[in-house]
Specification:
about 200 residues; mainly alpha; 10 helices; about 60% helix; elongated
Length: about 200
């Protein structure tokens, strides 16, 4: 049963049903299918709407989004769900772009980790990937492909050179502050102290 038809824009309308199903159609499509509030939506008609409109539109939307920028699967799925496509339309659209390798989380993670080198610590890059919906297992697997162990001492040194212009005059309080900052950025204690031993004369 269609309970409400709510305007989203002048041309787009959200169709609500009593089964908590919602999808968006254009004004002309509402007229074409004769959809009105308080009418029963026959299953066959809903299938036709989903196959002829929602699934095709979700595929095109997914392609358009990926053409503009890279997404992880979780990010793209969220964008499509925000567009109020049905769950089936979202699933089919995701499967479609994955089949043609337009959507590839492993490739995305590898590129992200490579581009992060020299700018972010491993932990920071991995944390950001997790926020994008990538599993820790995939991040670890991609990390292994890139390198067995990344030496981050050069990045630590470059950060210190920007933050501490006069290392010879730095007191214990300032050194502790730099140490805390680097630890919060995700660098390992051992790598930090390797750099400190060379950077601050008192540790040499």
């Amino acid at each position: 049963m269609i309970t409400e038809i709510i305007p989203v824009t002048k041309q787009k309308y959200r169709v609500m049903t009593d089964e908590q199903l919602a999808f968006v159609l254009y004004k002309g499509e509402l007229s074409r299918y004769g959809l009105k509030e308080n009418m029963e939506l026959p299953y066959e008609l809903f299938v036709e709407i989903q196959e002829e409109i929602l699934i095709k539109r979700a595929k095109l939307r997914a392609m358009h989004l990926l053409n503009r920028m890279d997404y992880t699967e979780a990010q793209l799925r969220k964008k499509l769900e925000q567009g109020e496509y049905t769950q089936k339309a979202v699933d089919i659209a995701i499967a479609y772009v994955k089949a043609y390798h337009y959507l590839d989380d492993e490739r995305y993670v590898g590129r992200y980790l490579s581009c992060s080198e020299g700018r972010k610590s491993r932990k920071q890059a991995e944390f950001e990937l997790e926020k994008k919906g990538v599993s820790r297992e995939m991040i670890a697997a991609c990390r292994e492909k890139i390198e067995d162990e990344q030496d981050e001492t050069e990045l630590i040194r470059s950060i210190l050179e920007k933050r501490c212009k006069n290392p010879q005059s730095a007191d214990e309080k300032e050194i502790r502050r730099h140490y805390g900052y680097l630890m919060r950025k995700g660098f390992s204690s051992s790598d930090i102290w390797k750099v400190f031993h060379d950077f601050f004369e008192r540790f040499s």
